[in-house]
Amino acid sequence: MAREVTGMVERRGMGLWFTHLLMIAGVLVIFFPIWLAFVASTVTQPEIVQPPMPLWPGDRFIENYTAALFSGVNVPVLTMLANSMVMAIGIAVGKIVISLLSAFAIVYFRFPGRNIFFWLIFLTLMLPVEVRIVPTYEVIAGFGMLNSYSGLIFPLIASATATFLFRQFFLTVPDELAEAARVDGARPMRFFWDILLPMSRTNIAALFVILFIYGWNQYLWPLLITTDPSMNTIVMGIKQMFPSGDDVADWPVIMATSILAMVPPVVVVISMQKLFIRGLVDSEK
Amino acid sequence: MHKTAFGALLAGTTMLSPMAAMAQTDIQFWHAFTGRLGELVAAQVETFNSSQSDYHVTATHKGNYSETLNAGIAAFRAGEQPQILMVFEVGTATMMSAKGAIKPVHEVMADAGADFDPDAYIGSVKGYYTSTDGQMLSLPFNSSTPVLWVNRDALAGAGIDPDTDLSTWQNVDATLDKLKDAGHDCPLTTAWQSWIHLENLSAYHDVPFATKDNGFAGLDTELALNGPVQVRHIAQMGEWAGEGKFIYAGRRNEGGANFRAGECALFTESSAGYAGIKAEAQFDFDVRPLPYWDGVDGAPQNTIIGGASLWVMEGHEAEEYKAVAAFLNFLSSTEVQAKWHQDTGYLPITIAAGEKTRADGFYAANPGTDVAVIQMTAKQPTANSKGLRLGSFDQIRGIIDEELEAVWSDDKDAQAALDSAATRGNQLLRRFEQANR
Amino acid sequence: MEKRVTFKGWLLPLCLIAPQVVISAVFFFYPAGQAVWQSLFIPDPFGLSSRFVGLGNFEYLLGDPYYRSAFVTTAIFSTLVTLTAMVPALFLAVLADRLVKSAGVYRTLLIWPYAVAPAVAGVLWLFMFNTRVGVVAWYLGQLGYDWNHVLNEGEAMGLVVVASSWGRISYNFLFFFAALQAVPRSIIEAAAIDGARFWRRFFTIVLPLLSPTTFFLLVVNVVYAFFETFGVIHTITSGGPQQATTILVYKVFSDGFVGQDLGSSAAQSVILLVVVGLLTVVQFKFVEKRVHY
């Protein structure tokens, strides 16, 4: 109802068209790099290296994508896509589970060391794996987790983004709900399962998207700990297609792989858009 | 044992023994090659694997040169190191100092009882990877040296005889003037500026790049790259940059794209640029020896190599080292080397491979492909032209890149930039010395 | 911001928090502690030997003008990335908020870049501005502008800033758009009836209401600019030209993993840790005090 009224306030002929125009310009600018990558993935190498390259797709779509998907660097891009998928889902699910539990503990309980734990967890928000990578690598190797999904996943779960967001959200949950649960004599976990978790659905969806993309986009960590080609992920694969020595960059195949690397996260973002955005709104209220 | 395998290869048959297949020894080989080079490496490994049944090599691409070295080091710290690690030439000092992490190639060969004749290898190639007492520490794998690539059509288009003498920088200077006067946008560009215009420049003019025989004689070496020859050259390049005669394209081989597209007339780049240029250039090109400054005593001496060598890592079983010895011997064999040299433009590592290539008529059919070989081997290397052995060298190259960029953009003069590079680089050398004392 | 209603007991919450604490301890605090310990040594790269140097690594770093200038570069870079990622996002969000019916379509198109890895974004932008094959660089050349980010420090900084901000614009847009939609309509209507003009209304009423979102995004974007832009800088400039785009995290990487100088790299991690700790505390004091409806 409210939106309708605003709409009436805002919609005035010229102004509306001007807004559309600005918006379209914005979208075009933002979208251009992806469009260009797509065009580059459908033309031949000579068309790219003799500038200017065309701005409209060519006819080499099938050839370039076949080369990318089935030849790859050390393994077919398909294998790398599967590895990225496992890693991204593992990180997203793992982090959401441990974060839900710890945020619940921090918000709904007063227990010894609570503040210290909170700050310890929060500190991890700030120092990504790149900065402590050598010791972290040694830990993983010590557990024999090189070339394993758990080695790819665990160190990247050790960060507090999700805990932070769940804490913010739980703080906005009306106290009456917990009060009622307490008066009814409901045990804390009952409250967690029956009330808090269903209420958090949209937040979980939002976080899943964020974390899936975070996991999917990892580069340095997989490069270090996967010494077995069959464990490579796609983002490191793209980087590896650039020649290190005196070879020539095969732009069409590199760009085709870039596009392939974008497809799963884009699908996740777009398909979960509504849930994701509702989650954001709720967590920011 | 490897002899049997090797014989089998030469005969073009595989003599598989069903018993031997039961106890196959598997070894890891980490390298930095993608694309066409990656395919060639994969083919070599495949040939080796199918040529015998005792050993199996698994080749893995670990990123670019720096990333591959890092992966190897990190893996060693975790006890997960491969048997064979490809390390680029600037990592040589790092590897050499890591006693306990590496097993010198001559030792691997001796322990495995393999046939190994160090004299079969080309002196100026193996010299970079040989200890001061003449023992081979790592096996040269891909080695190249800088040469001058010429776009003949561009010269002709500017009214210059495409066969004009470009053997000295003085002549190049005159040619650049003409190109500029004819309105050419990119008379000269380069790849790998530090490697070509300082490291090789120094060796080629027989002046030190660093004290203590360029670091071969001790960790207490200091950079000497700010001498008069180097300053003169960099000052000249800076002047060309200011006049739009030298176009700087980037720290690595970004300039290659400009040259291959026909935009640049002259291009200083590794001899290994051959395959790429041949594949993409739609103009008449040829390859010349790297120019030198006429009037400098001893110039032209010889140029030095770039590329990578194979290091054998410590901490594996004797049987695995036998497999390593067999594989390294396979790689050094004349057949494999000659093919590698002809396919890639990298230098052959053995004298026999070079001779076979000549006998095959390859140089005759592809004029200019032997320029690099001649330039490397024309003279006996001196203490200044044997190679470089400096710790933290990748980082020092980064510093040199920064300082050279300051010259090209006219923020500093050549002397100030090279002095600063020496001071900053020396700090790193001292830290490396402390870490490895 | 504390709950008034809480549950009793201490064993259950400790069990609930245990998985995160254990994982953080093993994969975060222990390695971070190792970094602190290693900062007192100059080890060789292979971990075969190491020399105790006390605070020698820190002295070396703080006496190095290039390290100090990396601080300045990081400050400039982070500010620019945060602004470039937030201002257009807010602008687009305000536009989208006005276009009730088609907002969904625009939103769907705008969020694509969010899904692109920083390393891949670096590749895409490099591809456009590559001095050789780059289409944008080529057209700029036709217009008479000689684009050369490999030598021009300002252009290099501009390029890494834009490439780093690109995906974040989508991210920030989503947050701003969601927050705008959540602004109580009655407030805006009341202002509109008062005859307040749109932008005035925006700055005096809407923007303050967005302050929790803005603050949250500020923190997240600064952290992003500090730490996650590594892939972009690595693919586009490698910290150059000269040291124009060498930010602190890139320097940790290049000294530690390119230069194999683990002592210096560990000391830099410790300095970063301290900086980040301070930043966090300051920001939290700030968020608790200032950002309220």
Automatic annotation (TrEMBL), chain C:
Database matches in Pfam families: BPD_transp_1 (PF00528)
Domain of life per record: Bacteria
Sequence intervals crossing the membrane: 9-30, 70-96, 108-128, 156-180, 201-227, 266-287
UniProt entry keywords in alphabetical sequence: Cell inner membrane, Cell membrane, Membrane, Transmembrane, Transmembrane helix, Transport
Example of a GO cellular component annotation carried by this entry: plasma membrane
Localization in the cell: Cell inner membrane; Cell membrane
GO process terms (BP): transmembrane transport
Residues covered by the ABC transmembrane type-1 domain: 71-283
Main location, first listed in the record: membrane
SUPFAM superfamilies linked to this entry: MetI-like
Membrane topology, record value: Multi-pass membrane protein
Oligomeric and partner information: The complex is composed of two ATP-binding proteins (UgpC), two transmembrane proteins (UgpA and UgpE) and a solute-binding protein (UgpB).
Family annotation (PANTHER family): BLL4140 PROTEIN, SN-GLYCEROL-3-PHOSPHATE TRANSPORT SYSTEM PERMEASE PROTEIN UGPA
Family listed: Belongs to the binding-protein-dependent transport system permease family.
Role summary: Part of the ABC transporter complex UgpBAEC involved in sn-glycerol-3-phosphate (G3P) import. Probably responsible for the translocation of the substrate across the membrane.
Protein name (record): sn-glycerol-3-phosphate transport system permease protein UgpA
Source organism of this protein record: Roseovarius gaetbuli
